[in-house]
Amino acid sequence: MQKKPVKDIKIKKKMTVDDLTKEYFESGGFTAKKLAEGVNILEKMQKDKDCVKFLSFPACIISTGTRGVIKDLVKNKLVDVIITTCGTLDHDLARIWENYYHGHFRFDDVELHKKGINRLGNIFIPNECYGKILEEKMQPILKEIYKNKEKWSTKELIWEFGKHLENEEKKEESIIYWAYKNKIPIFVPGITDGAFGSQIWMFYQEHRDFTFDLLRDEQYLSDIVFESEKTGALIIGGGISKHHTIWWTQFTNGLDYVIYNTTAQEFDGSLSGAQTREAISWGKIKEDADNVTIDGDATIIFPLMIAALFDRI
Asked: Which contiguous run of DSSP H or E holds residue 84?
């Protein structure tokens, strides 16, 4: 049994975020200690030149300012592969052209619906800032893309959209743009589950030969995983993006480094609530991997972790 004394956190003037996370590590706090462990694992991943770094996250956080943290990771080439959901494309593109707005959880949703405002948690998204603007902007881009090729993997199509953002005033705020610029692949296995996919379905009505090649995406992922010496992942939330990440990495005996950040509980057997220890039983995480599950809201925890990581590197 380890006898390591708990130390009090000491708040100091001009303290960096990394300074605070190091205090968390020594303080023995509950989620605080896990957050500090997560930063340590992220640092190891960055310093391990043999490690291919995956980032997995759900779309909801892209409707918030947390989008900027992911954009900075992609811009600074601190991730190698992204696996996410269709809504990430929706929100990332829509926010190039229109604004989302502060709202709150407890609002009359019937009244919002009558006013044409969609509520995502405590974010308000007017119809003109989402579906309408995506149709207006995406359909001309799709017509241009169609001239070049008819069958696309999600990775290829997302890069092509990034290329078409070159003349946009707010392009540098976009995850898609920086993924294209830095040739960081984004995979969306559930590509039709969102407004981006719906716009492509609408285009498909008059262009029946315009289709997705999802198996090409799987081949790209296969090549990435089997050519890697080690793999690591920062996985926010759950769902298809989480599962697709750990599904592929199991074929090379599992992740070497992994951080989960979730608000879900494991008692109902959901993937979102499944802890890292469960993935070890499936061989999706190595038995001796550096791993931690951090419970809590990603819009708080994720920016703190990345700010601390930036302090270190």
From this structure: strand 81-84
